[in-house]
Amino acid sequence: MSLNYEGVYKPQDPTFSAYPSRRSVVFGTKGIVAASQPLAVQAGLEILAKGGNAADAAVATAAALNVTEPSCTGIGGDMFCLFYSAKDKTVLGVNGSGRSPKALTMNYARSNGITGRTIPLTDLNSVTVPGTASGWCTTIEEFGSGKVTMAEILAPAIRMAEEGVPVSELHSHAWQRSENLIKNASPSAGSMLLNGRAPQPGEIMRFPDLATTFKAVAKDGRDGFYKGRIAEAIVELIKSKGGVMEVSDLEEHTATKVQPIKYTYKNDVTVHECPPNGQGLTALLALGILDEMEKEGKIPELAKMEHNSVEYLHTLIEALRLSFADTRYYVTDPEKVHVPVDELLSEAYLKTRAGLFDPSKAGDSIHHGKPVASSDTVYFTTADEEGNACSFIQSNYAGFGTGAIPKGCGFTLQNRGSGFTLEEGHPNELKGGKRPYHTIIPAMATRGDELFLSYGVMGGFMQPQGHVQVLLNVLRGMTVQAALDAPRFCISAGLPDSELKHEAPAGDVNSEVYIEEGIPVETINKLKEMGHDARPACGFSRGTLGRGQIIQLIKDKESGRRVWAAGSDLRGDGHAAAQI
Q: Which domain holds residue 95?
């Protein structure tokens, strides 16, 4: 970026994205927020200052991100969160994902001209009920402090939407890529454009319709979104494009409080993930397979391998390919189909999967196993003075989702229904009233019953891969900021709207592996020799490697006081900031 003669910012070639971050860890003893947009961080801090806790601050941050980064998130999409209670020393979660319209069947999809294995991203039959609003309400009801109201929590986002916010640099790039999508998706495109075009960095965007939507939720809670004007506008738009959603689909929607699934890695750190229909199981499976590889002597101790060496990368890639092969098949809505979580995470099954690992070469075509006994988003995290933490993720799915904006609502509708598999008999097959395979996943890690990390990495099928890579970075002694800065890899399609040219379906574990700049070309070439379809990811294409945030709990040695340590991904526009 540079100043032109008029004194305004002029976008230049983003050479900054080629260099390592020089950020340092952010520390605080009270509350702390790490998010992909600085103004959204301020919204969370504002609620902490009013006496809210980590859950309250998370919802405030989530709403603010709808204003500051609508290319990734919004109230027209879905959310998940995990909450660590310092009082109870427990981790619980909320599944705020929506279900397909009850009338949407495989037969209808086929008769409507859909021929592939998935619903196209721009087809409004891909719109599932937006789950975010109900998820926000459930998060506050279950985990909130009770000291601030929903109206107070949404006030910063409403203020920002009404007054307008300057558009950040990387977000502007994403907006420009989706300009035609927005223009063509619905008659209300103007509410998401600036004089008919995508905004440039530093230009101010206002969202008066979105502010009105937020006010309805602030006043009436769930009913403000799922009944009345907003629900009717959503249905009217979807039906105008051949969809079958009814107002009753929205009226009957509820978020779900969930018990996380977990795996204890090396008998030390327990990683907590939301259960299916989310793909957090992928990260747990990969950690279990890595554990078994070490126990069986198939690899030396992982922490003693050179970081991002050929040996290290090959081991992680293969463990994740094996875990994806299972979860891309088995993960679905557990209310509709049994998902064998316990069987998949059993030591006996993990041992069989680890036994497929060849340290000398990439495995041949990998498929799902049979368990014993019968994958554009925002991620952010918050913590408060009492020791609570909230790991929160929210998404439209593919960038702006469908790009379709219900009249007078100011948000785009997600296309999460593209996560269904249009294959008869598949566990994740499309059915009415069902939640699809979901890529967005928050994570937490504990040692015993004490919080260790509240963290996550956004980005389609990159997310569980990021959970594993970043956790292992921390466990080998990196600071939370360095753990995020370190170059990463991503197996196949990390983002559904990635500008990388993929030759295989999203989430295909037998396709390419993208290796981030910063890892030597020689390493990439050696991975190719081992049979990996390894390719470099540079510049804006680094977006496929995701963007993460971390908060770590540490203790001051002298006083014993709690200290929060936070990091924010150099691949995003955001930062971490502590409460004073």
A: 31-256+379-419
DSSP code of residue 544: G
Q: How far apart are CA 241 and CA 172, in angstroms?
A: 28
Does a structural domain hold residue 43?
yes
In DSSP notation, 411-475 reads: -PPP-GGGGSB-STT-TTB--TT-PPPB----EEEEETTEEEEEEEE-STTHHHHHHHHHHHHHH
**What positions carry a catalytic annotation?**
377
Residue 280 lies in a domain: no
Do the beta carbons of residue 296 and residue 354 sit within 8 Å?
Answer: yes
Q: Which of 243, 225, 91, 216 is nearest to 161 (CA)?
A: 216
Rounded to an integer, what distance in angstroms lies between the CA atom of residue 437 and that of residue 419? 5
Closest CA to 165 of 55, 43, 54: 43
In sequence order, what are the residues at sequence separation of 6 or more whose Cβ sits closer than 8 angstroms to the Cβ of residue 211?
A: 158, 161, 162, 410
Judging by DSSP bridges, how do beta strands 389-395 and 78-85 pair with one another?
Answer: antiparallel
Question: Given its phi and psi angles, is residue 313 left (phi above 0), alpha (psi -120 to 50 degrees) or beta?
Answer: alpha
Residue 402 dihedral angles phi and psi, to the nearest 5°: -70, -20
Give yes or no for a contact between 521 and 480, defined as CB atoms under 8 angstroms apart: no
Beta strand 450-457 with 575-578: parallel, antiparallel or unpaired?
A: unpaired
Take residue 250 and report the two structure tokens written for it: 């929205």
Q: Is residue 343 part of a domain?
A: no
Is 289 a member of any domain? no
pLDDT tens-digit profile, the chain (580 residues)? 333 323 333 333 343 344 466 789 999 999 999 999 999 999 999 999 999 999 999 999 999 999 999 999 999 999 999 999 999 999 999 999 999 999 999 999 999 899 999 999 999 999 999 999 999 999 999 999 999 999 999 999 999 999 999 999 988 998 999 999 999 999 999 999 999 999 999 999 999 999 999 999 999 999 999 999 999 999 999 999 999 999 999 999 999 999 999 999 999 999 999 999 999 999 999 999 999 999 999 999 999 999 999 999 999 999 999 999 999 899 999 999 999 999 999 999 999 999 999 999 998 756 555 443 333 688 999 999 999 999 999 999 988 999 999 999 999 999 999 999 999 999 999 999 999 999 999 999 999 999 999 999 998 889 999 999 999 999 999 999 999 999 999 997 544 543 333 333 444 556 789 999 889 999 999 999 999 999 998 776 777 888 999 999 999 999 999 999 999 998 888 999 999 9
Q: What's the total number of domains in the chain?
A: 1
Dihedral of CA 24/25/28/32: which sign? positive
